[in-house]
TrEMBL record:
Residues 19-300 form the NADP-dependent oxidoreductase domain. The gene is LOC105980410. The record marks 84 as: Lowers pKa of active site Tyr. GO terms for molecular function: oxidoreductase activity. This is Aldo-keto reductase family 1 member C3-like isoform X2. It comes from Dipodomys ordii. Keywords: NADP, Oxidoreductase.
Length: 323
């Protein structure tokens, strides 16, 4: 990952690898598998690792990274590590404690990028999903500008080199950008993005404001996950995507990833299969034609795999807006 083409400059002067490795795994996956997968990902060439407090794998992520540093495969500065502030920590006074918890689990001095994971706030406490007696989420009311100010302090303290947001819509981004006394602009917005949900308007908005867009679920999602909409089609089985893949002698996943890179997005790829990990990294040595890109643009159906509908009663639920 040394070539300049594979890095993108951020608005605060740092640079981030275009392709990242996602680390969210279901709880039934043994934690030892997580450590091994991240080691394999680093060996395959991944230098951008994306995790979060909510994923509950930060200890394993840190262990894998430290192991690769100790054996001399990489140095700490070679790895770009992202983590995220969970919704139960959106109150400004607990933003830094959440990051410090993550750093303690990772056993690292800093993260390269720290994101507000979701704009909807939940009741503070140890429960990741605080619920009432009816099984409904217990929400909290927090001004996201106050949360952002606390994020800025984490950057100033050197605990996070860069700061950004995740799952924010245009209106919420504008609120941060227009806040009085803004010191550091968000460097990125990490959102669900794939050919069925190409987020073209939000992408245009972010580009105009020098905010990098990072695509998660870039390969769609397995519909067997409990929170994923079961009625959605499987992206990687799409006949149009497959025909373009055959033309280029590539996998549908490689074409889906390449599509995002050529649109100027960063993209996260997640697989715990070694062969697929290596394939996912082999997306820098071919180009989709303008016609391919136009065809893939035409697949957009505004299909969202991750609706997070349990959050929808919250006034900051981001997916009610068109962009």
């Amino acid at each position: 990952m040394n070539s300049k083409e594979q890095h993108v400059g951020l608005n605060d002067g740092h640079a981030i690898p275009q392709l990242g490795f996602g680390t969210y795994v279901p709880k039934e996956i043994p934690r030892s598998n997580v450590i091994e997968a991240i080691k394999i990902a680093i060996d395959a060439g991944f230098r951008h690792i994306d995790t979060a407090y909510f994923y509950e794998v930060e200890e394993e992520v840190g262990q894998a990274i430290r192991s690769k540093i100790e054996e001399g495969t990489v140095k700490r500065e070679d790895i770009f590590l992202t983590s995220k502030l969970w919704s139960t920590f959106n109150r400004p006074e607990v933003v830094r404690p959440c990051l410090e918890r993550s750093l303690k689990k990772l056993q690292l001095d800093y993260v390269d990028l720290y994101l507000i994971h979701f704009p909807t706030s939940l009741k503070p406490g140890e429960d990741v999903f605080p619920k009432d007696e009816h099984g409904k989420f217990i929400f909290d009311t927090v001004d996201l500008c106050d949360t952002w100010e606390a994020m800025e302090k984490c950057k100033d303290a050197g605990l996070a080199k860069s700061i950004g947001v995740s799952n924010f819509n245009r209106r919420q981004l504008e609120m941060i950008l227009n806040m009085p006394g803004l010191k550091h602009r968000p460097v990125c917005n990490q959102v669900e993005c794939h050919p069925y949900l190409n987020q073209s308007k939000l992408l245009e908005f972010c580009k105009a404001r020098d905010i990098v867009m990072v695509a998660y679920a870039a390969l769609g999602s397995n519909t067997d996950k409990e929170w994923v909409n079961k009625n959605n089609p499987v992206l990687l089985e799409d006949p149009v995507l497959n025909s373009i893949a055959q033309k280029h002698r590539r996998t549908p996943a490689q074409v889906a990833l390449r599509y995002q890179l050529q649109r100027g997005l960063l993209v996260l790829a997640k697989s715990f299969n070694e062969k697929r990990m290596q394939e996912n990294f082999q997306v820098f040595d071919f180009q989709l034609t303008p016609e391919d890109m136009q065809t893939l643009d035409g697949l957009n159906r505004n299909i969202r795999y991750f609706e997070d509908s349990e959050f929808s009663p919250h006034p900051n639920y981001p997916f009610s807006d068109e962009e």
